[in-house]
Amino acid sequence: MEYLLNATSKNILWSAISTPTGLEGWFADRVLSDDKIVTFCWGKTEQRVAEIVAIRSYSFIRFHWLDNEHEREYFEIKMTNSELTNDFVLEITDFADEDEADDVRELWESQVETLRRTCGF
Predict the structure, then answer these.
(1) CB 73 within 8 A of CB 95
(2) C-alpha–C-alpha distance, residues 29 and 73, integer Å
(3) Are 72 and 92 spatial neighbours (Cβ–Cβ below 8 Å)?
(4) d(Cα 14, Cα 34) in Å, to the nearest integer?
(5) What is the spatial distance between Cα 17 and Cα 88, in angstroms, rounded to a whole number?
(6) CA-CA distance, 97 to 117, in Å (whole number)?
(7) Beta-carbon-side half-sphere exposure of residue 3 (alpha carbons within 13 Å)
(8) Region of 5 on the Ramachandran plot (φ > 0 left; ψ -120 to 50 alpha; else beta)
């Protein structure tokens, strides 16, 4: 999925997608990081733990949920810059079962909308 953002600063966007504080602004209620292991918390009881399996500064961050039995499945948040408009594009790659794909797409759309509001994109 791709989302056009009216971001003017690659530093602000990179911080929003790659740091615990940034992710707390739009992706999860609380984010705890211990090097490559990241715990995402929602509400008082829901939490999932992911490992950062790949990262390139100012480009992308890829997570693998530790409770996912499929080693090759991940979710990735990638930022690219459109040379034509100078806007940033957020590319989301996520794996879902066919019957859950629409729900996952709606969840990402909601999360990215929150990102737009909190960061002014």
Answers:
(1) yes
(2) 24
(3) no
(4) 19
(5) 13
(6) 29
(7) 22
(8) beta
- Round to whole Å and give the CA distance between 49 and 55: 17
- Structural contact between residues 94 and 108, judged by C-beta atoms closer than 8 angstroms: yes
d(CA 75, CA 118): 22
Whether the full predicted model's pTM is greater than 0.70, yes or no, is yes
Q: What is the pLDDT of residues 1-56, one digit of tens each?
A: 999 998 678 899 999 999 999 999 999 999 999 989 999 999 999 999 999 999 99
User: Is residue 115 classed as helix, strand or coil in its secondary structure?
Assistant: helix
Paired with 34 in beta bridges are: 37
Angstrom distance (rounded) from CA 81 to CA 92: 14
Kindly list the distances between the CA atom of residue 78 and the CA atoms of 10, 42, 44, 50, 63, in Å, as whole numbers in the listed order.
12, 23, 29, 17, 11
SS3 (DSSP) at 59: coil
DSSP states of 79-114 as a string?
EEE-TTT--EEEEEEE---GGGHHHHHHHHHHHHHH
Domains of the chain, first to last:
2-119 (3.30.530.20)
